[in-house]
């Protein structure tokens, strides 16, 4: 078999990309690199036309969209408030259908469970439908370490797997790439691809990927998918895709593994259909995704196809700790990506800058829960608090409010000698002495107004601003002094009229 059809045997020898090696929670450094990357900035320009405008059009075409949002929010709120009941009911239904349910407290336990199932199935090759939870637990690396070859079958995930990168978006993993970059990756990985073959069009890229992935679908021993919803009423898992890869991943192999976090539950099939109506419109601007697939248990005697074994791995990994806290509303998230698409910070730096599986506003809330606020403190601060994320969220999740809660926790956890606390204490000392405060601010304004812009740009507290924007010169008099002078001038002019 040629290397073109062994792309996943060959990529281990290729060098890892910078993005993979430097993936970290150091947001400031990552963001600085992203802002200076012309290829990335060109790719991010597609987000507006690809997501924002399409969502707006889809919303406008559905008069009851806001009513559906309210109904969907109520469904998920109800489930979270009674999560224990629905989890037990879901497990009963899965077992009754012939499936198996595995409970994982954390990422390590989830990896061990999946590896045990794969070993029991004698798996050498595993195909995967897109699953952010599998990214969260680092599943691909664990499979490779166990000499099991993971093959991503979503086109975006396939591309970034060739590049040895992580997703930069939760629904469009390769949104940070341009078409010419993807063509270069295909030519490097599919080494017997004829040089004259035209890959400049999307349809050609898709066709080339399909040629390679078809053999992987047929060779896979185990198929792993995520789940957009888990239905307590029937014990079913639901996935939505636009490429049909999810169907092939769960139907062709002998074993199907579903990896999902606890909050994916909905009570009934009708509830799932309600949320589906806002999911696709919020995510990609579609009325409905091309494929919406419901799976219930393993293949039955009269089924024409399907797996012989069906396993569901339910991951906690900090979710239960969110119950009853100010972050509980985050469990309503359906991973549509609307908050990322409309976030001005994400649009400027992309997903890799966040250094987390979950970027953007939703990641700024969820990542500190998964890693701890000490390691992720910059993420809830990577926000302008413009409120667009909350405005477009189909689940009405108060993302800015929760980011403020994380900021409060970070501030409370800081040492008494931390720079922000010392700065606030200094400000408080001045604020309790109004006369001295007015004198100090007036003197500061006069001094800074006399400095040339070249020196202002080099001041320590302005360096985070001045490389990208022109720092305006301060007024020589404070606002209050200008206001008082204005009011006095108004009184002076009015006195003759009433004399």
Strand content: 5-15%
Q: Largest sheet, if any? A: 6 strands, parallel
Poorly predicted regions are 1-23
Query: What's the number of extended β-strand segments?
Result: 10
Class of the largest domain, according to the CATH hierarchy? Alpha Beta
Task: Name the CATH superfamily assignment of the largest domain.
Answer: NagB/RpiA/CoA transferase-like
Rounded radius of gyration (Å): 27 Å
Order of strands, widest sheet: 1-10-7-4-2-3
Shape: elongated
Count the helices. How many? 27
Tell me the count of domains: 2
The helix fraction, in percent, is: 40-55%
CATH topology of the largest domain: Rossmann fold
Our measurement of the CA-to-CA distance between the termini, rounded to an integer number of angstroms, reads 103 Å
Describe the structure.
With 499 residues, the chain is an alpha/beta fold. It folds into 2 domains: 3-321, Rossmann fold, CATH 3.40.50.10420; 434-498, no CATH class. 52% of the residues lie in helices and 9% in strands. It is built from 27 helices and 10 strands. The chain has helices spanning 7-10, 18-21, 27-35, 38-44, 46-60, 65-81, 83-96, 107-120, 132-136, 139-145, 155-163, 179-189, 202-219, 245-251, 269-283, 319-322, 338-341, 344-349, 360-371, 373-376, 378-381, 388-392, 399-413, 419-431, 434-450, 453-456, 479-494, and strands at residues 100-104, 125-128, 149-152, 222-225, 229-231, 236-241, 255-261, 265-266, 291-295, 309-315. The strands form 2 sheets. A 6-stranded parallel beta sheet has the order 1-10-7-4-2-3, with helices on both faces. Strands 8-5-6-9 form a 4-stranded mixed beta sheet. A hairpin with a 4-residue loop joins strand 5 (229-231) and strand 6. The radius of gyration is 27 Å and the shape is elongated. The N and C termini lie far apart (103 Å). The relative contact order is 0.12. Mean pLDDT is 89; it is low at 1-23. This is Iron-sulfur cluster binding protein. GO terms for molecular function: 4 iron, 4 sulfur cluster binding; metal ion binding. It comes from Rhodomicrobium vannielii (strain ATCC 17100 / DSM 162 / LMG 4299 / NCIMB 10020 / ATH 3.1.1). InterPro entries: 4Fe4S_Fe-S-bd, 4Fe4S_Fe_S_CS, FTHF_cligase-like_sf, Helical_ferredxn, LUD_dom, LutB/LldF, LutB_C, NagB/RpiA_transferase-like. Residues 324-353 form the 4Fe-4S ferredoxin-type domain.
